[in-house]
Design brief:
By secondary structure, the protein is α+β, with helices and mostly antiparallel strands. The protein starts with about 25 loop residues before the first strand and ends with a strand. InterPro entries: MoaC (IPR023045), MoaC_bact/euk (IPR047594), MoaC_sf (IPR036522), MoCo_biosynth_MoaA/MoaC (IPR050105), Mopterin_CF_biosynth-C_dom (IPR002820).
Length: about 160
């Protein structure tokens, strides 16, 4: 049986006690994406979105989101973030384009930054949607998932597919 750590002896939610855990260097990388049509792609590339430079704003939103994760996810510990990097990569598909978003979050602490990386990638995608929805409301935010993480008691993880 798998024992989940976010429940107390009464089966109610609790924040995990990390006070006895060793501080170590920790890194997490997450991925999300947003699918869009050619018109949205061109507007982003030519900086014709009235709300501003879409990718720059999405980068800042992702960074801000990583720093605010503990305010959004109830059982996340507030942790000192050492660094956040948000990058973008375009992928042409048959009938639309996909903007791939990678977020890398670093800390030195007693708990990992997986949730911060996932939150950063998600909020960057949502920001892009918000800024471009006037052109096309049918944009689709794709799967969001952890690509890899290092550090901590559970060791390293790298997604296989």
């Amino acid at each position: 049986m798998i024992m989940l750590t976010h429940f107390n002896q009464d089966g109610r939610a609790k924040m995990v006690d990390i006070s006895d855990k060793e501080a170590s260097s920790r890194v997490a990388v997450a991925r999300s994406s947003i699918h869009m049509n050619q018109l949205v792609y061109e507007a982003i590339q030519q900086q014709q979105i009235k709300k501003g430079d879409v990718l720059s704003v999405a980068q800042v939103a992702g960074i801000m989101a990583a720093k605010q994760t503990s305010s959004l996810i109830p059982m996340c510990h507030p942790i000192p973030i050492s660094g956040v990097n948000i990058t973008f990569e375009w992928n042409e598909l048959d009938d639309n384009l996909e903007l791939i978003i990678h977020s890398e979050v670093k800390t030195v602490g007693s708990t990992g930054v997986e949730m911060e990386a996932l939150t950063a990638a998600s909020i960057a995608a949502l920001t892009i949607y918000d800024m471009c929805k006037a052109i096309d409301k049918s944009m689709t935010i794709g799967s969001t998932y952890l690509l890899e993480k290092s550090g901590g008691k559970s060791g390293d993880y790298k997604r296989s597919n």
